[in-house]
Design brief:
Elements (H helix, E strand, L loop, with lengths): L3 H15 L4 H13 L1 H6 L1 H5 L2 H5 L4 E10 L5 E12 L5 E7 L5 H17 L5 E7 L8 H15 L8 E5 L5 H15 L19 H19 L8 E4 L4 H12 L3 E6 L3 E4 L6 H10 L5 H6 L4 E4 L11 E3 L9 H9 L4 E3 L8 H9 L3 E3 L1 H4 L2 H15 L5 H25 L6 H19 L4
Parallel strand pairs: 3-4, 3-5, 6-7, 6-10, 10-11, 11-12
Antiparallel strand pairs: 1-2, 2-4, 7-8, 8-9
Bound molecules: 1,4-dihydronicotinamide adenine dinucleotide (NAI) and 2-oxoglutaric acid (AKG).
1,4-dihydronicotinamide adenine dinucleotide (NAI) binds next to helix 10.
């Protein structure tokens, strides 16, 4: 039988040859493939069944046009995507992203990551992702509604509560989910479990809004505790000022950390006294404004254009919560110089491969996205459960389950790290722990 190194190299070549321009997808897949080598050496049956060739190829890719009209009556056409990547352990599950950068490479990387992330939650959900290159920035509520209605008019043909259950991601929050859900219901009648992240009045789950950010801190607490350390008193940088960043900020502060930054795509604010949560929420959740406005309202804060990862201050913990590839090698080296001990990723793939190599070489303890930010999709799966049984659980109940799930995810990654003697590589540990469940399911189901 072919040896593991050759098998992985051949697979990488096939992927590069098939989709030479999909750099984000290649980056996500190659990292996972490299970390699975020890498992493949131990389990030749996965190589024999060529499981990985199936794992890296989506079950289905749907691409469609999304025509919509702006408030002045002009017509626009955007591109919509849904990648139904893997349903070995449950219906496709993953968010929808609205951002001008969205293309097939980005949706495929996100969908691929979602497979192993969803597996790590221990819940029965497969992997998928979707979105559009529509830019919600500066659009009126009516424009957002018309776009969402057009998007769902096409998407509704391909989703279902036991088939594919989308949710939010960048640019898709409660407002957009409401418009998407309304259009689905208009076309198909009531189907509670068709989307997650719904409003509480029509089948949403308590704690879904908070879940990714809170989950990140529950994961971080488990990771830090295992190193004999605590979050209390630590100085923290957060990037982003969206859903994940805001609730990571809230939970980190509740745990006694001093969070000194938040950011958006234009720049960041630095407040050595600690970021004021209520001001960020007002600017971002209520006014949908820019983070620059924070510095006009809080006298101890300063606003800077550019990346928060270029700010040179002493701090302990980095929580990137904005977008992919926001941290490069130079910025990772600055973290080392600044004394950072832990990085836990709220965003998907925020650190590029060279940055991750710096973390590992410098013994920064690194919590990768698919483990650290799995709380959002985990509570989405709990929303699906509540929809199925037509009940609503209390905030406390959902939050306690979320905490357990995140602690388990850390533990599974740490156990895999020990089993395969990876030397505190919780990224490889998460990849392996997520993969093993999916691989067993795929093997059991025959040629898939
Ligand atoms: N919402 C969720 O439940 C989950 C989100 N994620 C990931 O978390 C990240 C953030 O998502 P959300 O908070 O939901 O989105 P959001 O749309 O609520 O917020 C995104 C934030 O990132 C900022 N941002 C976007 N591009 C940027 C750039 N190039 N540089 C600096 N800041 C930038 C935006 O200004 C905004 O503040 C994404 O990577 C997403 O895939 C991961 C798991 C679940
Ligand atoms: O809740 C969901 O299904 C979406 C979560 C998501 O998109 C993610 O984990 O990146």
């Amino acid at each position: 039988m072919v040896d593991v190194e050759t098998y992985i190299n051949d697979l990488k070549e096939t992927i590069t040859h098939r989709d030479p321009n999909q750099s984000e997808f290649q980056e996500a897949v190659f990292t996972v493939l490299d970390s699975l080598k020890p498992v493949l050496k131990k389990h030749p049956e996965y190589v024999k069944a060529n499981i990985l060739a199936s794992l890296v190829e989506p079950e289905r890719v749907i691409q469609f046009r999304v025509p919509w009209q702006d408030d002045e009556g002009n017509f626009h056409v955007n591109r919509g995507f849904r990648v139904q990547f893997n349903s070995a352990i449950g219906p496709y599950k993953g968010g929808l992203r609205l951002h001008p950068s969205v293309n097939l490479s980005i949706v495929k990387f996100l969908g691929f990551e979602q497979i192993l992330k969803n597996s790590l939650t221990g819940l029965p959900i497969g992997g998928g992702k979707g979105g559009s290159d529509f830019d919600p920035k500066g659009k009126s509520d009516s424009e957002i509604m018309r776009f969402c209605q057009s998007f769902m008019t096409e998407l509704q043909k391909f989703i279902g509560p036991d088939l594919d259950v989308p949710a939010g991601d960048i640019g898709v929050g409660g407002r957009e989910i409401g418009f998407l859900y309304g259009q689905y219901k208009r076309l198909n009648g009531f189907q509670g479990g068709i989307l997650t992240g719904k409003g509480l009045e029509y089948g949403g789950s308590l704690a879904r809004t908070e879940a990714t950010g809170f989950g990140l801190i529950y994961y971080l607490n488990a990771l830090i505790k295992d190193q004999g350390d605590t979050l209390k008193g630590k100085t923290v940088k957060i990037s982003g000022a969206g859903n994940v960043a805001i609730y990571a900020l809230k939970k980190a502060q509740e745990n006694g950390a001093n969070v000194v930054t938040v950011s958006d795509s234009n720049g960041y604010v630095y407040d050595p006294n600690g970021i004021d949560l209520a001001t960020v929420k007002q600017i971002k959740e209520v006014e949908r404004g820019r983070i620059k406005e924070y510095a006009d309202r809080v006298s101890t804060a300063k606003y800077f254009e550019g990346s928060v990862w270029d700010l040179d201050i002493d701090y302990d913990i980095a929580l990137p919560c904005a977008t992919q590839n926001e941290i490069d090698e130079t910025q990772a080296k600055l973290m080392v110089k600044d004394g950072v001990k832990y990085v836990a990723e709220g965003a998907n793939m925020p650190s590029n491969s060279a940055a991750i190599a710096v973390y590992k070489d410098s013994k920064i303890v690194y919590g990768p996205a698919k483990a650290a930010n799995a709380g959002g999709v985990a509570v989405s799966a709990l929303e699906m459960s509540q929809n199925s049984e037509r009940l609503s659980w209390t905030f406390e109940d959902v939050d306690n389950r979320l905490k357990d799930i995140m602690e388990n995810i850390y533990q599974k990654s740490a156990d895999a790290d020990k089993e395969y003697d990876l030397g505190k590589d919780f990224q490889a540990g998460a990849n392996i722990a997520g993969f093993e469940k999916v691989a067993k399911a795929m093997l059991a189901q025959g040629l898939v």
